[in-house]
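INTERNAL AUDIT FORM
Audit reference: QA-55
Scope: verify that the stored structure record matches its stored sequence.
Auditor: D.O.
Record contents follow.
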Amino acid sequence: MANLVTSLCCVVLAAVVVAYAQRRSQLVARNQYERMGSDVTMQCGSLDNDASVSWKVNGTDVKAQHRLEGPRLILTQVNLGHNGLYSCFQNPHGERRDTILLHIGIPPREPTVTCRSNTYPKGFYCSWHQLHATYVPTTFEVDVQHNQRSLEVQKDSVHKNRCHVRFPEVFSSFPYKVNVTAVNALGKASTTISFEESTIVKPDPPERVTATPIRLNPRRLEVSWQSPSTWPDIDNFPLKYFLRYRPLIRDQWQHVELSDSTSHTITDAYAGKEYIIQVAAKDTEIGTWSDWSVAVHATPWIEDPLPITSTTEGDFSTETKTSPIPSSNAPQKAEPPVGRAAKLLTFFSPLLLGMLLLFM
């Protein structure tokens, strides 16, 4: 009896597990990818052709142009506006039977691929991108061949559409062949390029460019820079440099090419004019010039102006000021009291002298 009860319990438990799994499979949305502009058919689970169902998209009734054929919903000429979560419900009880996440997009086209070595002779990197959006997730597969063997490809940790490849040998005469394939749920497309090692060498721009005026030299600027930090072996693979400069008041650049020096003195600058200066770098034998460095601005030495001497208040006290002649009807300035006493003394002095003589 105990064995029978145990067996029945196991059967019931198995049935519950199966029912739960079926229920979960109906509730979890499944992805469906379709091409833009096509007619799309969505099937409501595994219901029979005579089943009656209703559909909702994102929780509301389907309003886009469509038709129903039993358990199937047919959308015509779909576009990005048809993206969404579609759910179907079996009539008459309205039980949800399936959920579909619809993605509308286009197949990928041939990607654009470029390769460059800014760390010569260590290796090179390749970048790729799609000229047209696909609107659905697209991945890329990369294959690099050299001398009839595949090379290891390392994906870039920062740039998702870039990979790095080490040179298997230096000064190789065998070309490299790089194939990049774009893949999504709607199709795939590939691009293949071939190149020789020497044609993809391009350093990064020089760094820490500075321009300093030279004292007592109003037409000179001392320019210095450092080789790019990404260039791994400057001693065995030296760089040459290209300097350009111009005053801001003119559009025409002046150029100087230097063998391996990381400094240069400009001797023909316009006195007192602000200059803009940039530097580029290139391997001395192969490859192409780098992009221009970040522009720096500088102005040649300008002589300090002579100090302005200020006049003190005491200096103005010795100045003679001429007052304008007053007009006839203007009020005359009153005479000072000391002047009147002197005139009275002059008038009475003979009389006082006579009286003094009488009393003597």
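Auditor finding: record pair retrieved intact. The domain at 112-199 is CATH 2.60.40.10 (Immunoglobulin-like).
Action required: none
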